Amino acid sequence: MTFVDSHCHIDGPEFDADRDEVIERAHAAGVTTMLNVGTGDPRSGTFERAIELAEKHERIYAAIGVHPHDAKLWDDQAEQRLVDLVKQSRRVIAWGEIGLDYHYDHSPREAQREVFKQQVRLAREANLPVVIHSREADDDTIALLRAELSGHERAGVMHCFGGSLVMAQSALELGLYISFAGNLTFKKAGDLRDVARQLPLDRLLIETDCPYLSPVPFRGKRNEPARVVETARYLAELHKKELEEVGRITSESFEKLFGVR
Ligand SMILES: [Zn+2]
Ligand SMILES: [Zn+2]
After folding, report:
1. CA of 97 to the centre of ligand 2 (A)
2. Ligand with an atom nearest the CA of residue 99
3. What pLDDT, on a 0 to 100 scale, did the predictor assign at position 175?
4. What is the pLDDT of residue 215?
5. CA distances from 24 to 21, 81, 118, 226 (A)
6. Which ligand is closest in space to the CA of residue 5?
């Protein structure tokens, strides 16, 4: 069986002690491919770290971008660094995560919107799909994407989806894929499972967003890419498919969206 973890953060300090074992466990579970997302203060070396990890492992790719939490740290230097790194490294296959987070509001909303917009434009110039983080900001996210992303062929993915069916359908219309994380397995996530059941399987991806959001039955523990299989298991049940088929279909979608084989 083959699975792809379409969104993980294994370059961070949470994995410094056992990163190699974590990657080995992923491979042992059939998780052949990972997209590692470099996020955090743009001056902290986080983008470089993500790229370094991707240079070292053939099947780990990098996405880089300024997270909405850090929108207040955006400046010309951050922009230039991102543009240069995207040009320099073939291992960067996506721009993100970018978007809006009105749940935490770590950066002013006005700044979040402006930095999101600028990065969607930069991603288009670089011909890269975007990885979108949207939390409690569905309407603004879709409005901005309608204005900035329409007609983009390899548009991107709504990561760690937690929105409504209407939101999901608007994203699909824009050419985006929808990615589900461990929260799909949570006991109280009945509404989210209803949404997942109604979406076309060939437009869905799976992810861990590790170290966060460990799926059932590992909830509360540090998450890792091997556990993306648990989310796939729920998706298989919702779509009445074999686990193997969900692995295959979501892996093919990943390859198609990000242009990797
Ligand atoms: Zn996120
Ligand atoms: Zn993330």
Report:
1. 7
2. 1
3. 95
4. 92
5. 5, 32, 37, 9
6. 2
**How many angstroms does the Cα of residue 80 sit away from the middle of ligand 2?**
22
227-252 as b/e, with b when 16 or more CB fall inside 10 Å? bbbbbbbbbbebbebebeebbebbbe
> Which own/partner pairs from 229-232 qualify as long-range (CB within 8 Å, at least 24 positions apart)?
229/3, 229/29, 229/30, 229/31, 230/182, 230/185, 231/180, 231/181, 231/182, 231/184, 231/185, 231/206, 231/207, 232/3, 232/206
**pLDDT value of position 5:** 98
Ligand 2 geometric centre to CA of 70 (Å):
13
* CA 51 to centroid of ligand 1, rounded, Å: 18
User: Which ligand is the nearest neighbour of the Cα of 6?
Assistant: 2
Tell me the residue type at 12: G
Give per-10-residue mean pLDDT for the chain (261 aa): 97 96 98 97 95 97 98 97 96 98 97 98 96 97 94 90 96 96 96 98 98 91 97 98 98 97 78
Compute the half-sphere exposure of residue 172: CA atoms within 13 Å on the CB side of its CA: 19
What ligand has the least distance to the C-alpha of 101?
A: 1
Looking at residue 126, what is its pLDDT?
Answer: 95
Q: Which one of the ligands is nearest to 159 CA?
A: 1
pLDDT in tens, 47-78: 999 999 999 999 999 999 999 999 999 999 99
